[in-house]
Please model this.
Amino acid sequence: MDSALSSPPGDDPDNDSGNDSRHDPGGRAAGMATAVADDRDSHETGATPPNEMYLSTGTPQTLVKLLVAGPFGVGKTTFIRSLSETEPLHTEEIMTSGSAAVDDLSGVREKSTTTVAIDFGRLTLPGDLVLYMFGTPGQRRFRPLWQDIARGALGALVLADTRRLSDSFEVMDMIEEAGLRYAVAVNTFPDSPSHHPSKLRDHLDLLPDTPLVLCDARDRDQAADALIALVGHVLALTHQETA
Amino acid sequence: MTPPPRDHRRLVPAYLATTGRARPSRNTLDRLTVLYAPASPSSRLRPEQRRLLELLQPGALTLAEAAAHLRLPLSVVRVLVADLVDAGQLSARAPVPEAELPERQILEKVLDGLRTIKSSR
Model:
């Protein structure tokens, strides 16, 4: 941890674990698919009318994925909620640790499994395009999940918090390992120390062309701007490669 | 040129290949694989399979969305989907339709779309 930029834990203004979708008081909208009506209340869909829950029919849509990556509590779910047309959902992921080095012949090594919730949201764009945003935890222990979540992703937005910038290093390492292009959005909290962008850039050791934006994750326009910076950057790199 | 060997640990090695319309890298059950249920599901289904097909009756969802609504782990839903597709009870298509655009064009469309979203507020 970088003591100069860190603050005590426990003051996270948002909860990235996926539990924050559970306080939704609405419950499920009436008429939702009966499949989930038996004994399970699908809290996540409470804010989403049933007709908006499903993908549109007609022209096949192109579904694309961006990662919103960052350490716990940095505002990934808040960011996704700002842009998602549905209340963010989450998948349960079973993570098996210790499996990476096990080959088929010696697969008896002891493994332990943990479950983690991955939040995601959906944003339908003009032109039969649907953008999915997956909140991806940045800690190294979530590495087994990254390959699967990152597969096919157009890029990643790293959310950073100026109070603990060094937490973002692990995230950027994992993104680079996954071979993704990325931009950095510094989520501005009310009590965040303000830093000059060039100082932040130095601190995060970014390449000169990696976008760095300031962004209030609660603000839809600012969140959209952060993704525009990311996608514009990925597009520019793609142009360079094909030029 | 011989394509590089595929990952042999897929749950379903071949089912999407039979449609012959997606790139090899997409012939897997991605979390954005789009699922469509048939109009009249078979009566011989396990309870979880039935729940999945009933969830999909009103419309299509991605695998990740289906897993979230069913509150089942993604890995479990992957297996359910694979079994149902093998049994002809479920249709699945890759996230990017067959007339696939180059990534650059997709990025341009995403960028344009995000700008639209912003200016519409």
